[in-house]
Amino acid sequence: MTFSDFGLKEPINKALENIGLEKPTQIQEKVIPLVLEKLDVMAKAQTGSGKTASFVLPILENFLNNSYEGKAKVRVLVLAPTRELALQVSKTFEDLSKYIKKRPKVVTLIGGDDISQQLLDVQQGRDIVVATPGRLLDIISKKQINLSFVEYLVLDEADKMLDFGFQEELDLLLEQIPSKRQNLLFSATYPEKVLEIASKITKEAKEVFLEEKETVELINQRAIKVNSENRSALLRHLLKKEKFEKVLVFMATNRAADNLAAKFRKYGFNAESFHGHLDQEERNYTLEDFKNKEIDILFSSDIAARGLHIDNITCVVNYDLPRSPADYVHRIGRTARAGKSGNAISFLTLENYEHFKLIEKRSNINLEKEEIEGFELKGTPQKKKKGEAPVKGKRKSKKDKLREARAKKENL
Ligand code: AMP
């Protein structure tokens, strides 16, 4: 199947051609016809599955079939959990509408950016709003936005919005938009709370739960034993030897990310750090540079683990291991996107060795524990103490709640 089989209009096909997309992904094959038929959709989709284009393309097509004269009214509302994801969704709308004559106007309403400019844009009239819930509610409370013409409500990565007290926010939002509308819900997982949201917002939604080949299968996962203090040298060694191009390195703390990026710059690498303590502009610049290959290595906190679309990351490195197995999968999923293969390397130290075994168990993997000549592990891995739970359980600890509250403050 190719995109031309959907019978989309000429400007949209031209945009697809321009971006170089030919074959729809599985999720696109299923979701696009349903949206074109004006049905509600509830899809299970990971980042990297092509889910963004699966709603952007048919929405644009429907727009073309049904254009209005006069000042733009908000007809599409997309909610996304993070600023970065919102920006990426907006960019997909921009890219795919490039050749439409009366091009729909898009605004991204996110925290961290100047609210007065966003208000100005809204006042001038926008067809498509892509927003994080916090900022949108802020603007709603200022009575600066009219959402009574919304025809499409899209919830992107719904499971990631749950953490942020989203359900109450959603209720407030639903009061603002017409009850007759098309609803599209995308979520990588479907815990009880997402199902509740789905039943609240969607009507007779068509479910798209694909038995797709896990992205994970396309990733060459490796675990390398190394003493903690030798990780930086080993990373330099691997970068030189394996000639990975775009490398995303996950670190436990923002400060460690800054320090290591500085250290690697001294060694002559194009390295930068990326985390929640940078302001939005810095984050945008850094991401752009990484996407454009002006940065080769990005040292990042977990902020980059979810929802970021960066093509052609050839390697993800767990310099520090993630706390939970779910985060392990999210992190390594930054590589091997849209059907391409990728590498994921985890450094196993004396301190985290046992923790990795738990990650393996929960992720159903069992990797060979490699050693690299010159960097062999010395010492005996620390045993887990009885009663200690290094892997995050289902219930959130106080620390997790604080972390979430902080993330919310930083993100929205
Ligand atoms: P998403 O799942 O929306 O996060 O998309 C992930 C990446 O896949 C984006 O960078 C898209 O440019 C790319 N992509 C989307 N659709 C396709 C496709 N049909 N073929 C190849 N790449 C695609």
Short description:
The chain is an alpha/beta fold.
Instruction: Report the β-strand fraction as a percent range.
Output: 15-25%
Low-confidence stretches: none
Oligomeric nature of the chains: single chain
| Rough outline | elongated
Topology, element by element:
Layout: H1 10-19, H2 26-36, E1 41-44, H3 51-64, E2 76-79, H4 83-96, E3 106-109, H5 115-124, E4 128-131, H6 133-141, E5 152-155, H7 158-161, H8 166-174, E6 182-187, H9 192-201, E7 206-208, E8 219-225, H10 231-242, E9 247-250, H11 254-266, E10 271-274, H12 280-291, E11 297-300, E12 315-318, H13 325-332, E13 342-348, H14 353-363, E14 369-371, H15 398-411
Q: What can you tell me about this protein's structure?
A:
This protein has 412 residues and is α/β, with parallel strands linked by helices. The protein has 2 domains: 3-209, Rossmann fold; 219-370, Rossmann fold, CATH 3.40.50.300. The chain is 39% helix and 15% strand. It has helices at residues 10-19, 26-36, 51-64, 83-96, 115-124, 133-141, 158-161, 166-174, 192-201, 231-242, 254-266, 280-291, 325-332, 353-363, 398-411, and strands at 41-44, 76-79, 106-109, 128-131, 152-155, 182-187, 206-208, 219-225, 247-250, 271-274, 297-300, 315-318, 342-348, 369-371. Strands 3-4-2-5-6-1-7 form a 7-stranded parallel sheet, sandwiched between helices. Strands 10-11-9-12-13-8-14 form a 7-stranded parallel sheet. Helix 2 packs parallel to helix 3 (51-64). The chain is elongated, with a radius of gyration of 22 Å. Bound molecules: adenosine monophosphate. Adenosine monophosphate is lined by residues 21, 23-25, 28, 47-53, 309, 311, 337-338. Adenosine monophosphate (AMP) binds at residues 21, 23-25, 28, 47-53, 309, 311, 337-338.
